[in-house]
């Protein structure tokens, strides 16, 4: 089982703009070479090349336009006219503008190209061969281009499944999760603590989901269900949403309870990979699972309704021989949540110790209080250590408690009146007779 740090290495990052940068550098080097060899012909050659590269896509767009107008104007475009069909075929926008500017630049140049007749023949021949090569797939987009296009426009299967999982399930149940756990703990003896008051969602890379977790790992036992949430949804009155509580045992047979389930949309990905008609093999399935995890994580991080109510665990369960890898992964994440601390470290000039923002034992909903580090004695953290305060009056009260454990930690302030950070300046005015 991979560690929590290795999880980020599995998730693909969004594709950046490095190809554009490399293309710009290559174009600049090529133009620089042409400028060095024949500077008087630079604009003519650049205009000629741009015209060749843009006329080809425009002619291919005309071929696409013939198909769309004759057979698909009503079914695909719903008779919306040329204003919709032309841009859909690529006969609008940047390509048309670039071709027009290149033609205008070629017309305005003062020095005609050598062998101008042959150059024009080359333009028309290259432009007319482009649609043929494009239609045959020779000039088709690469897999990387298709992947980048689908990810940029959110057209992958994983994007649709992630949004469906969020809109149709998580956004409905996660805001009610804390109340369900509270009601469950009030009626049953449970060890659901602060760190386990989240819905743990398991996402295995192979998308192979077991419907009974104890069959996959005998250290995970079904405990009970949380109270049902009944929500009116899509015409169904009182549709039931439920969560299951599981007992997870560690190697010392200590029990840890948590609300646990798999991401249900992974069943769809796994079933699609088993159907030959779906054209969805194992490599594509793995890639879609990673995109599903990244997309769902981004959606939930930006959702105020679901924040702090979930925990996603990506399971790299390939080539795993440990029969308890699932329980170990769950316990590792539970321990990370329960031992999490946020420290407020003092500035280098302060020498009275480090203060940590830790949860109060009585709090259950993530409220925090400021308590000193266990190794530090309880002193006033706001007292200045500068030499100019050596003659200040003594602090009232005693900052050292005889038994610090006998009382709840509190936030302590200095009893000194506020002091300015600047030295006092003489700004009084004396008037005669006063």
UniProtKB/TrEMBL annotation:
It is found in: Cytoplasm, Perinuclear region; Cytoplasmic vesicle, Autophagosome membrane; Endoplasmic reticulum membrane; Endoplasmic reticulum-Golgi intermediate compartment membrane. It is a multi-pass membrane protein. Residues 156-338 form the STING ligand-binding domain. Residues 397-406, 422-434 have a biased composition (Basic and acidic residues). One of its GO terms (biological process) is autophagosome assembly. It catalyses: H(+)(in) = H(+)(out). Residues 44-154 form the STING transmembrane domain. Keywords: Endoplasmic reticulum, Membrane, Nucleotide-binding, Transmembrane, Transmembrane helix. Residues 383-434 are annotated as: Disordered. InterPro entries: STING, STING_C_chordates, STING_C_sf, STING_LBD, STING_TM. GO terms for cellular component: autophagosome membrane; endoplasmic reticulum membrane; endoplasmic reticulum-Golgi intermediate compartment membrane; Golgi membrane; perinuclear region of cytoplasm. It comes from the Eukaryota. One of its GO terms (molecular function) is 2',3'-cyclic GMP-AMP binding. The chain crosses the membrane at residues 21-39, 45-65, 85-109. Its main location: cytoplasm. Belongs to the STING family. This is Stimulator of interferon genes protein. It comes from Gymnodraco acuticeps (Antarctic dragonfish). The lineage of its organism: Eukaryota, Metazoa, Chordata, Craniata, Vertebrata. The gene is sting1.
């Amino acid at each position: 089982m991979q560690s929590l740090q290795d999880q980020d290495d599995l998730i693909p990052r969004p594709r950046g703009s490095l190809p554009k940068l490399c293309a710009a550098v290559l174009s600049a080097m090529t133009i620089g070479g042409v400028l060095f060899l024949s500077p008087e012909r630079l604009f003519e050659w650049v205009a000629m090349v741009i015209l060749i590269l843009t006329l080809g896509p425009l002619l291919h767009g005309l071929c696409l336009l013939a198909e769309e107008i004759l057979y698909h104007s009503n079914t695909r475009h719903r008779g919306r006219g040329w204003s919709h069909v032309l841009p859909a075929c690529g006969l609008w926008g940047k390509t048309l503008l670039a071709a027009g500017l290149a033609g205008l630049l070629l017309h305005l140049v003062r020095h005609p190209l050598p062998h101008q007749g042959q150059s024009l023949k080359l333009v028309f021949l290259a432009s007319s061969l482009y649609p043929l090569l494009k239609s045959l797939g020779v000039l088709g987009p690469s897999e990387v281009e298709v992947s980048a296009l689908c990810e940029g426009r959110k057209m992958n299967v994983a994007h649709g499944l992630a949004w469906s999982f969020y809109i149709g399930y998580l956004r409905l149940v996660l805001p009610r999760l804390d109340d369900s756990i509270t009601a469950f703990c009030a009626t049953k003896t449970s060890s659901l603590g602060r760190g386990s008051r989240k819905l743990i969602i398991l996402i295995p890379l192979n998308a192979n989901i077991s419907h009974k977790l104890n069959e996959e790992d005998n250290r995970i036992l079904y405990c009970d269900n949380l109270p049902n949430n009944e929500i009116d949804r899509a015409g169904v009155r009182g549709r039931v949403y439920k969560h299951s509580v599981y007992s997870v045992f560690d190697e010392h047979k200590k029990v840890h309870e948590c609300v646990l389930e798999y991401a249900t949309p992974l069943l769809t990905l796994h079933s699609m990979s088993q159907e030959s008609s779906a054209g969805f093999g194992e490599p594509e399935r793995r890639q879609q699972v990673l995109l599903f995890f990244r997309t769902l994580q981004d959606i939930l991080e930006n959702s105020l309704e679901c924040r702090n109510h979930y925990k996603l665990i990506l399971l790299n369960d390939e080539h795993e021989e440990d029969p308890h890898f699932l329980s170990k992964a769950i316990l590792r994440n539970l321990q990370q949540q329960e031992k999490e601390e946020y420290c407020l470290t003092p500035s280098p000039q302060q020498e009275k110790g480090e203060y940590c923002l830790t949860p109060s034992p009585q709090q259950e909903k993530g409220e925090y209080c400021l308590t000193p580090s266990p190794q530090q004695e309880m002193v006033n953290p706001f007292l200045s250590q500068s030499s100019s305060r050596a003659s200040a009056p003594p602090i009232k009260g005693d900052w050292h408690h005889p038994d610090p454990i006998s009382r709840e930690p509190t936030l302590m302030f200095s009893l000194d009146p506020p002091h300015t950070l600047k030295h006092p300046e003489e700004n009084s005015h004396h008037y005669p007779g006063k």
